[in-house]
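This section describes the prediction task in plain terms. A model, or a person checking by hand, is given the sequence of a single protein chain and must write out its three-dimensional structure as a string of tokens. No templates, partner chains or ligands are provided. The sample shown here is typical of the held-out split.
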Amino acid sequence: MRKGETMVHIQVDEQVELRSLQPSDAEELFALTDDNRAYLKQWLPWLDFTLEVADSLKFIEQTMKQEELKNGFQTGIFYEGRLVGVIALHGINRANESTSIGYWLAEDAGGKGIMTKATESVVTYIFEELKLNRVEIKAATGNVRSKAIPERLGFVHEGTLRQAEWLYDHYVNHELYSM
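The expected answer:
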């Protein structure tokens, strides 16, 4: 991958685009994270490790290595040209041809169908381009908005993973969905 080259690019519709995060996105990613810190902290465990632009840059550099190794990706979700969130493949299990999707969206971008359309496009990419067999999405039991995405897209609810994630001062259960 050449410096600055975008490896993953998915045009979801006229308003929504998914593209690999690049070092030039670090300031915008950090600002978005920082502006949504309290909102995101309800469900995401990594906010205490993202305290300055350098932390977002380090994350982006790690995601570029992940893409180079063809072991998943982290794409920015751009709505009308503005970064509003991230959607990712956490890794690819080549032995079982499977992966999992994770995502987050800025609070003010919710309710517009952005994440449902982005996830649907990533699922299509997983099956048609990557030729994988299975994709999972996990969402905290109490995270109604996050759980609605796989439910809306026809994923199968496989069950509840008890105390699956440590979230700052308590464990949360996860609902496991697959397609």
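For orientation: Helices lie at 26-35, 37-41, 53-68, 114-129, 144-152.
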